[in-house]
TrEMBL record:
<feature type="domain" description="Macro">
    <location>
        <begin position="67"/>
        <end position="241"/>
    </location>
</feature>
<protein>
    <submittedName>
        <fullName>LRP16 protein</fullName>
    </submittedName>
</protein>
<dbReference type="InterPro" id="IPR043472">
    <property type="entry name" value="Macro_dom-like"/>
</dbReference>
<dbReference type="InterPro" id="IPR002589">
    <property type="entry name" value="Macro_dom"/>
</dbReference>
<dbReference type="GO" id="GO:0005654">
    <property type="term" value="C:nucleoplasm"/>
</dbReference>
<dbReference type="GO" id="GO:0042278">
    <property type="term" value="P:purine nucleoside metabolic process"/>
</dbReference>
<dbReference type="Pfam" id="PF01661">
    <property type="entry name" value="Macro"/>
</dbReference>
<dbReference type="GO" id="GO:0140291">
    <property type="term" value="P:peptidyl-glutamate ADP-deribosylation"/>
</dbReference>
<dbReference type="GO" id="GO:0006974">
    <property type="term" value="P:DNA damage response"/>
</dbReference>
<dbReference type="GO" id="GO:0140293">
    <property type="term" value="F:ADP-ribosylglutamate hydrolase activity"/>
</dbReference>
Amino acid sequence: MSSASQWKEEKERILALPTEEKRKLYKSGDYITIDKVDPWIFYVQDNQSLQDKKHTVEDLNEFRKIKLNSERNININHKVSIFKGDITKLEVDAIVNAANSRLIAGGGVDGAIHRAAGPMLQAECNTLGGCPTGEARITCGYNLPANYVIHTVGPQNGSAPNLKSCYENCFALVKQYELKTIAFPCISTGIYGFPNRLAAHIALRSARKFLEDNKDVSRVIFCTFMPVDVDIYETLMQMYFPVHEWNYGDDV
């Protein structure tokens, strides 16, 4: 059997498995179900010290690029989460891979996803012809708890429009495949050197716009592995997903 027919057959088999059967394939038993990841509104309630994190003038300038529909705040605050940990452990519809343009397993989160998914992930990636910066491709998750992996290639030159395209194209696949839950790493902020804070603004702004327009998605998770990203997301999510009125006022 050729490698091409192998991954196709395995993909069809895995995607058809009931959840309990699929769990036998996971590389690790310490997978995390979606109900174990607190929605943002509960995260805020459990972490009262978050109100001490104040946004800056620069944050406010970025935030002014979006107009929130405040009537959606309560609903959307149940649909976003911060997760401090390993994205490969999450049992969701899709996790996002910060990939390279050749879609060949690399380091960091990319390598971790490929190791957890198994060799069929690379076999499928090899058929896609790569992925240009700012675009996204979708594959099966194979031995991952996630059903799918959405591969996107972040900019190496600090291009904010290209990073925005990464998130928009990932969300377009969410809509196309009718996915309900998705988890993102911090795209381009590692060896690609994109500024962490601006990257978070772009991620949160993109998610907010998508959730206001797409009511069927039940959870968007931001995986913040590094302490610097935890701090940034805890600060900025209070602006884009306000639980209290003062979170996004003009009095910086």
